[in-house]
Structure formats: C-alpha cells, structure tokens
Design goal:
Elements lengths: L1 H23 L6 E10 L3 E13 L6 E12 L3 E12 L4 E12 L6 E12 L2 E10 L6 E9 L1
Antiparallel strand pairs: 1-2, 1-8, 2-3, 3-4, 4-5, 5-6, 6-7, 7-8
Length: 151
C-alpha cells in the first residue's frame, strides 16, 4: 500500500510542470504546485505533494491568491489524501488551507478515517494543522494536530 501512495504522489507532483507548459501556451488556467513537510502523531514524518488551479478573481483574470488543491501525503505511520481550498495570508509567505481528508494508518490496524482539516501558516510558510476525523467504522471523533512547513 505504501508504494501506491508514493506513485500517486509522484503523478500528482508531475502534473504541475505540464500545467505550467499549458499556461505558457495559453491553453488553461494558472496552476500552483504545493509541497510541504509535516510532523505529527497520525502520519509521523510525512511529505505533502500536490497542486491545483488558481481561482481568478474576475473576468480580467486577476488572481485573488486562492486555489483548489489536490494533495497526497505519504508518511512513516500513515497517509492522507486531501481535496481543499486555500489562499495566501499577508505578505510574509503565509497561507491557509481548508480540506476534506481521507486518513489511513499503516501497520497491523489499517485504521481509516474521513474528516476535515484546517492549516494556518501565519508567516514564512510554517504553522499548524488541526483536524477532526470520524472512523470509517463506528467510533468517536479523533482530533489531530501537526506542525507543518510548506514550500
């Protein structure tokens, strides 16, 4: 299963250069790549890869510094797949992302969860992520927190 996550991460990351070529050729929307490092209990040490289209503000094509994102996060203890919406915060390389996430633990338990997460990176692309997850089978809400560093 870990190899599937790694292959999917590579495929998602490789889409960004193709999208940049399409943008230069005037064939599609502007895309933004996304990458980061996370440290937390649920996935251990993990790397996030993905990207998505920037959302134009108006008909002139000016951006509001917001994007739709698809993210893959393989880690040492588990992995995540996320779809989200995010934007820039201020002028110090900060941002935020609100996303729906599928979380799976590796190992003997293979626990699976679905939930929602909010990442806030106030400056220099460093910050925290907080999430609430429900197990795929019966159970209580599981709250998560992680430290993250984005590129």
């Amino acid at each position: 299963m870990r190899h599937c996550w790694a292959v999917l991460a590579f495929v998602v990351w490789s889409v960004s250069p193709l999208a940049a070529q399409r943008r230069v050729a005037g064939l599609g929307p502007d895309w933004i790549p996304a990458a980061g490092l996370h440290v937390g209990h649920e996935t251990g040490y993990s790397i996030v890869l993905g990207g998505g289209p920037l959302i134009p503000e108006d008909l002139t094509g000016e951006h509001q510094n917001r994007a739709l994102l698809a993210l893959v996060e393989p880690g040492t203890r588990g992995g995540r797949l996320s779809l989200g919406y995010g934007g820039a915060l201020g002028k110090l390389a900060g941002g935020w992302v609100l996303r729906g996430t599928f979380l799976q633990h590796w190992g003997s338990s293979h626990e699976r969860y679905g939930g929602i997460e909010l990442s806030v990176l106030p400056m220099l692309a460093a910050g925290m992520r907080v999430g609430a997850f429900l197990p795929a089978l019966n159970g209580r809400v599981r709250w998560t927190t992680d430290f993250e560093l984005a590129f």
